Amino acid sequence: MKTLKYFTLFLLTAVMAFAVTSVSYADEYSVNYSCSYNGTEITTNFNQDEFDKIVGALEPGDSIKYVATYSNNSNSETDWYLRASVLKTLENGTAEGSGYIGSLTNASPDSSAPEILFNNTQAGGTTSVPIEGLKQLTVATGEFFSIGKLKAGEKGVITMTVRFDGESENNDYEKTAGKLLLQFAVEDSNHDVAAQKTPAASSKTKTGDSANLLLAIALMTAALLAILLAIINYRRDRKAGDQA
């Protein structure tokens, strides 16, 4: 009988340890899409539903990698720009009370294009290209900064990695992830300007950390109570054995 109680105590301790580790578990997600200029407009294959699923699953400590390929499918040389609000949001370090770290890089066939736009993942603080030092383009949809030229048929890749702080006070990352969607603009040799219209994160999406966190807390509480009861029974058995 005592052996069974000892085994039960060990099993409950293991359950509690599993519950504790489930709280700190972090996932990595990836958002991949492409944008191209056809001489008239910028088109994209961005999938809003898939993005909403990722945002809905975000929890403290999770990370997202945005990979956006931009290409020139027109017959003329083009200047490409990225929405400045993305870089400003990263530089701010906090959005909607959610702290995070990340990097923003640019792989372009244009040798004069900036390669590292932002990086605060390295020791020693933030390394970034100041927005004031980048060529600006103002269009009807907002402010953009230069990421280089593309000749006809060329393409580049913007990669952004964001890890949300596990100690963040606000665990709703929907607005943060939506602000960090990569949006492009282009100006061709005829000085025609086109800006990409990327949808914001769906307002119906709810991040998944609240429910999962409550479940983990419930598991830990139940395990602790069960262990407490097992300890009380064990001490009671020992007292009964001593008295006998």
Structure keywords:
244 residues, alpha+beta, 8-stranded mixed β-sheet, 5-stranded antiparallel β-sheet
What is the strand and helix layout of this fold?
Layout: H1 2-23, E1 28-37, E2 42-44, H2 48-57, E3 63-72, E4 78-83, H3 84-92, E5 94-95, E6 98-107, E7 116-119, E8 127-128, E9 136-139, E10 142-150, E11 155-164, H4 174-179, E12 184-188, E13 193-195, H5 209-243
Parallel strand pairs: 1-3
Antiparallel strand pairs: 1-2, 3-11, 4-10, 4-12, 5-6, 6-7, 6-11, 7-8, 9-10, 12-13
Structural classification? alpha+beta
Roughly what is the average pLDDT, rounded to an integer? Answer: 75
Shape: elongated
Oligomer type: single chain
Measured on Cα atoms, how large is the radius of gyration? 26 Å
> In angstroms, what separates the terminal alpha carbons?
17 Å
Number of strands: 13
Low-confidence stretches: 200-205, 207-211
Could you characterize the architecture of this molecule?
- 34% of the residues lie in helices and 32% in strands.
- α1 runs antiparallel to α5.
- The strands form two sheets. Strands 1, 2, 3, 5, 6, 7, 8 and 11 form an eight-stranded mixed sheet that branches.
- The protein is built from five helices and 13 strands.
- The two termini are 17 Å apart.
- Residues 200-205 and 207-211 have low confidence and may be disordered.
- By secondary structure, it is α+β, with helices and mostly antiparallel strands.
Quick rundown:
By secondary structure, the protein is α+β, with helices and mostly antiparallel strands. The protein has helices at residues 2-23, 48-57, 84-92, 174-179, 209-243; strands spanning 28-37, 42-44, 63-72, 78-83, 94-95, 98-107, 116-119, 127-128, 136-139, 142-150, 155-164, 184-188, 193-195. Strand 12 and strand 13 (193-195) form a beta hairpin.
